Amino acid sequence: MKVQFLGQNCFLFTYKDKTILCDPFYKMQAAESKFDIKSQKIDYILLTHAHEDHIADVDDVLENHPEATLIGQPEICAYFKKAKNKDDVNLGGSAKVDDLKISMVPAHHTSSFPDGSYGGVPVGYVFRLPEGKNVYLAGDTGVMADMQIFPALYGDLDVSILPIGGHYTMCARKAAFAASELLKTKKVIGCHFDTFPAIAIDHEEAKNHFAVKNIELVLPKAGESFEI
Protein backbone atom coordinates (compact mmCIF):
# COMPACT_ATOMS: atom_id res chain seq x y z
CA MET A 1 0.00 0.00 0.00
CA LYS A 2 1.22 3.47 -0.89
CA VAL A 3 0.19 6.48 1.20
CA GLN A 4 0.57 10.11 0.10
CA PHE A 5 0.04 13.02 2.49
CA LEU A 6 -1.87 15.93 0.95
CA GLY A 7 -2.22 18.16 4.01
CA GLN A 8 -4.24 18.25 7.26
CA ASN A 9 -5.96 14.82 7.37
CA CYS A 10 -6.08 14.30 3.61
CA PHE A 11 -4.29 11.16 2.42
CA LEU A 12 -4.31 9.29 -0.86
CA PHE A 13 -4.08 5.52 -0.35
CA THR A 14 -3.19 3.34 -3.32
CA TYR A 15 -3.86 -0.36 -2.94
CA LYS A 16 -3.17 -2.55 -5.96
CA ASP A 17 -4.99 -0.66 -8.75
CA LYS A 18 -7.47 1.16 -6.49
CA THR A 19 -7.14 4.66 -5.01
CA ILE A 20 -8.82 5.87 -1.82
CA LEU A 21 -8.84 9.61 -1.05
CA CYS A 22 -9.43 10.33 2.63
CA ASP A 23 -10.96 13.58 3.95
CA PRO A 24 -10.53 15.74 0.82
CA PHE A 25 -8.89 19.02 1.80
CA TYR A 26 -6.09 19.09 -0.75
CA LYS A 27 -6.58 22.59 -2.20
CA MET A 28 -5.21 24.23 0.96
CA GLN A 29 -1.68 22.89 0.31
CA ALA A 30 -1.84 22.13 -3.41
CA ALA A 31 1.04 24.50 -4.15
CA GLU A 32 3.27 22.32 -1.99
CA SER A 33 1.88 18.87 -2.81
CA LYS A 34 1.44 19.50 -6.58
CA PHE A 35 -1.68 17.34 -6.33
CA ASP A 36 -3.93 17.57 -9.41
CA ILE A 37 -7.37 16.04 -8.95
CA LYS A 38 -8.11 16.14 -12.68
CA SER A 39 -5.19 13.91 -13.62
CA GLN A 40 -5.47 11.61 -10.59
CA LYS A 41 -7.64 8.49 -10.68
CA ILE A 42 -9.97 8.35 -7.67
CA ASP A 43 -11.99 5.21 -6.97
CA TYR A 44 -13.14 5.87 -3.39
CA ILE A 45 -13.65 8.86 -1.09
CA LEU A 46 -13.29 7.96 2.59
CA LEU A 47 -14.63 10.40 5.22
CA THR A 48 -14.04 10.45 8.98
CA HIS A 49 -16.43 13.27 9.92
CA ALA A 50 -18.21 16.36 8.65
CA HIS A 51 -16.00 19.29 9.65
CA GLU A 52 -15.04 21.61 6.80
CA ASP A 53 -11.32 20.81 6.89
CA HIS A 54 -12.22 17.20 6.09
CA ILE A 55 -14.92 17.60 3.44
CA ALA A 56 -14.21 20.96 1.75
CA ASP A 57 -13.09 19.41 -1.55
CA VAL A 58 -15.54 16.48 -1.78
CA ASP A 59 -17.66 18.19 -4.44
CA ASP A 60 -14.53 18.95 -6.46
CA VAL A 61 -13.62 15.26 -6.39
CA LEU A 62 -17.11 14.23 -7.47
CA GLU A 63 -17.15 16.75 -10.31
CA ASN A 64 -13.95 15.28 -11.71
CA HIS A 65 -14.62 11.65 -10.74
CA PRO A 66 -18.42 11.17 -10.66
CA GLU A 67 -18.14 7.37 -10.45
CA ALA A 68 -16.09 7.47 -7.23
CA THR A 69 -17.73 5.63 -4.32
CA LEU A 70 -18.25 7.60 -1.12
CA ILE A 71 -17.53 5.66 2.09
CA GLY A 72 -18.68 7.10 5.40
CA GLN A 73 -21.37 7.22 8.05
CA PRO A 74 -25.00 7.15 6.82
CA GLU A 75 -25.49 10.83 7.69
CA ILE A 76 -22.42 11.89 5.69
CA CYS A 77 -23.34 9.76 2.70
CA ALA A 78 -26.87 11.17 2.70
CA TYR A 79 -25.57 14.75 2.80
CA PHE A 80 -23.62 14.51 -0.47
CA LYS A 81 -26.40 14.38 -3.05
CA LYS A 82 -23.94 14.49 -5.96
CA ALA A 83 -22.45 11.14 -5.04
CA LYS A 84 -23.95 8.46 -7.28
CA ASN A 85 -22.20 5.58 -5.54
CA LYS A 86 -22.21 5.25 -1.75
CA ASP A 87 -21.20 2.70 0.88
CA ASP A 88 -22.80 3.95 4.10
CA VAL A 89 -20.91 1.99 6.74
CA ASN A 90 -21.59 2.40 10.46
CA LEU A 91 -19.65 1.59 13.61
CA GLY A 92 -18.88 -2.12 13.81
CA GLY A 93 -19.08 -2.44 10.04
CA SER A 94 -16.50 -2.58 7.26
CA ALA A 95 -16.19 -1.56 3.64
CA LYS A 96 -14.29 -3.75 1.19
CA VAL A 97 -11.95 -2.62 -1.58
CA ASP A 98 -10.94 -5.82 -3.35
CA ASP A 99 -9.37 -7.90 -0.56
CA LEU A 100 -8.68 -4.85 1.64
CA LYS A 101 -11.09 -4.49 4.56
CA ILE A 102 -11.66 -0.99 5.96
CA SER A 103 -13.27 -1.24 9.40
CA MET A 104 -14.96 1.76 10.97
CA VAL A 105 -13.96 2.48 14.59
CA PRO A 106 -14.89 5.21 17.10
CA ALA A 107 -13.16 8.57 17.44
CA HIS A 108 -13.55 11.04 20.31
CA HIS A 109 -14.43 14.37 18.65
CA THR A 110 -17.47 16.27 17.32
CA SER A 111 -19.03 16.34 13.86
CA SER A 112 -21.27 18.84 12.05
CA PHE A 113 -21.38 20.21 8.53
CA PRO A 114 -20.41 23.83 7.78
CA ASP A 115 -24.12 24.72 7.55
CA GLY A 116 -24.61 23.47 11.12
CA SER A 117 -26.49 20.30 10.22
CA TYR A 118 -25.80 17.02 12.01
CA GLY A 119 -22.82 15.13 10.63
CA GLY A 120 -23.18 11.80 12.40
CA VAL A 121 -20.58 10.58 14.85
CA PRO A 122 -16.86 11.06 14.13
CA VAL A 123 -14.92 7.89 13.30
CA GLY A 124 -11.57 6.43 12.37
CA TYR A 125 -10.70 3.38 10.29
CA VAL A 126 -8.49 0.31 10.46
CA PHE A 127 -7.18 -0.80 7.08
CA ARG A 128 -6.84 -4.58 7.28
CA LEU A 129 -4.51 -5.92 4.60
CA PRO A 130 -4.79 -9.61 3.67
CA GLU A 131 -1.18 -10.39 4.66
CA GLY A 132 -2.05 -9.52 8.26
CA LYS A 133 -0.79 -5.93 8.35
CA ASN A 134 -3.01 -3.21 9.81
CA VAL A 135 -2.98 0.56 9.36
CA TYR A 136 -4.95 2.72 11.79
CA LEU A 137 -6.31 6.04 10.52
CA ALA A 138 -7.48 7.87 13.63
CA GLY A 139 -9.29 10.84 12.10
CA ASP A 140 -9.65 13.75 14.54
CA THR A 141 -9.62 12.35 18.04
CA GLY A 142 -8.51 12.83 21.59
CA VAL A 143 -7.10 9.99 23.67
CA MET A 144 -9.80 7.43 24.46
CA ALA A 145 -9.92 4.08 26.21
CA ASP A 146 -11.40 2.43 23.09
CA MET A 147 -7.95 2.59 21.50
CA GLN A 148 -6.69 -0.32 23.57
CA ILE A 149 -9.34 -2.56 22.00
CA PHE A 150 -8.12 -2.01 18.43
CA PRO A 151 -4.92 -4.13 18.55
CA ALA A 152 -6.75 -6.78 20.57
CA LEU A 153 -9.54 -6.94 18.00
CA TYR A 154 -7.65 -6.48 14.74
CA GLY A 155 -4.07 -7.49 15.57
CA ASP A 156 -0.87 -5.46 15.64
CA LEU A 157 -1.17 -1.93 14.26
CA ASP A 158 1.89 -1.70 12.02
CA VAL A 159 1.38 2.01 11.32
CA SER A 160 -0.93 4.51 13.02
CA ILE A 161 -1.86 7.85 11.44
CA LEU A 162 -2.54 10.15 14.36
CA PRO A 163 -3.43 13.86 14.77
CA ILE A 164 -0.76 15.62 16.81
CA GLY A 165 -1.51 19.35 16.51
CA GLY A 166 -3.41 19.79 19.77
CA HIS A 167 -6.16 22.39 20.30
CA TYR A 168 -8.79 20.44 18.29
CA THR A 169 -7.26 16.95 18.69
CA MET A 170 -4.53 15.19 20.62
CA CYS A 171 -1.23 17.00 20.98
CA ALA A 172 2.05 15.17 20.34
CA ARG A 173 2.49 14.24 24.01
CA LYS A 174 -0.97 12.71 24.25
CA ALA A 175 -0.64 11.01 20.88
CA ALA A 176 2.65 9.45 22.00
CA PHE A 177 0.91 8.14 25.13
CA ALA A 178 -1.92 6.71 23.02
CA ALA A 179 0.54 5.09 20.60
CA SER A 180 2.61 3.52 23.35
CA GLU A 181 0.14 2.60 26.07
CA LEU A 182 -3.08 1.92 24.16
CA LEU A 183 -2.45 1.27 20.48
CA LYS A 184 0.89 -0.53 21.00
CA THR A 185 2.10 0.75 17.65
CA LYS A 186 5.76 1.33 16.77
CA LYS A 187 5.38 3.78 13.89
CA VAL A 188 3.24 6.92 13.70
CA ILE A 189 2.59 9.23 10.77
CA GLY A 190 1.53 12.59 12.16
CA CYS A 191 -1.27 14.68 10.69
CA HIS A 192 -3.51 17.63 11.59
CA PHE A 193 -0.57 19.89 12.44
CA ASP A 194 0.89 23.19 11.14
CA THR A 195 -2.06 23.85 8.78
CA PHE A 196 -3.35 26.74 10.89
CA PRO A 197 -1.73 28.82 13.68
CA ALA A 198 -3.77 27.08 16.38
CA ILE A 199 -2.24 23.70 15.51
CA ALA A 200 1.35 24.76 14.82
CA ILE A 201 3.83 22.49 16.61
CA ASP A 202 7.47 22.37 17.65
CA HIS A 203 8.78 19.50 15.51
CA GLU A 204 11.72 18.58 17.72
CA GLU A 205 9.58 18.58 20.84
CA ALA A 206 7.01 16.37 19.11
CA LYS A 207 9.67 13.89 18.01
CA ASN A 208 11.09 13.76 21.53
CA HIS A 209 7.71 12.78 22.99
CA PHE A 210 7.69 9.74 20.70
CA ALA A 211 11.41 8.98 20.95
CA VAL A 212 11.29 8.49 24.74
CA LYS A 213 8.66 5.82 24.13
CA ASN A 214 10.75 4.18 21.38
CA ILE A 215 8.21 5.03 18.68
CA GLU A 216 9.12 6.35 15.24
CA LEU A 217 7.32 9.59 14.38
CA VAL A 218 7.12 10.76 10.77
CA LEU A 219 6.16 14.39 10.20
CA PRO A 220 5.27 14.38 6.50
CA LYS A 221 5.44 17.30 4.10
CA ALA A 222 2.54 17.88 1.71
CA GLY A 223 3.02 15.62 -1.28
CA GLU A 224 5.29 13.14 0.52
CA SER A 225 4.62 9.42 -0.05
CA PHE A 226 5.24 6.29 2.00
CA GLU A 227 5.15 2.55 1.33
CA ILE A 228 3.43 0.36 3.92
Outline of the structure:
With 228 residues, the protein is α/β, with parallel strands linked by helices. The chain has helices at 30-33, 52-55, 58-64, 74-79, 149-154, 172-183, 203-211; strands spanning 2-5, 11-15, 18-22, 44-46, 69-72, 85-88, 94-97, 100-106, 123-128, 134-137, 159-163, 187-191, 216-218, 225-227.
Structural class: alpha/beta
**Low-confidence segments:** none
- Give, in spatial order, the strands making up the sheet with the most strands: 6-5-4-3-2-1-14
Number of strands: 14
Strand residue content:
25-35%
User: Termini distance?
Assistant: 5 Å
- The percentage helix is 10-25%
Describe the overall structure.
The chain contains seven helices and 14 strands. The chain has 228 residues and is α/β, with parallel strands linked by helices. The strands form two sheets. Strands 6-5-4-3-2-1-14 form a seven-stranded mixed β-sheet. Strands 7-8-9-10-11-12-13 form a seven-stranded mixed β-sheet, with helices on one face. Helix 5 (149-154) links the parallel strand 10 (134-137) and strand 11. The longest helix has 12 residues, at 172-183. The radius of gyration is 16 Å and the shape is globular. 46% of the residues are buried. The model has no long low-confidence stretch (mean pLDDT 97).
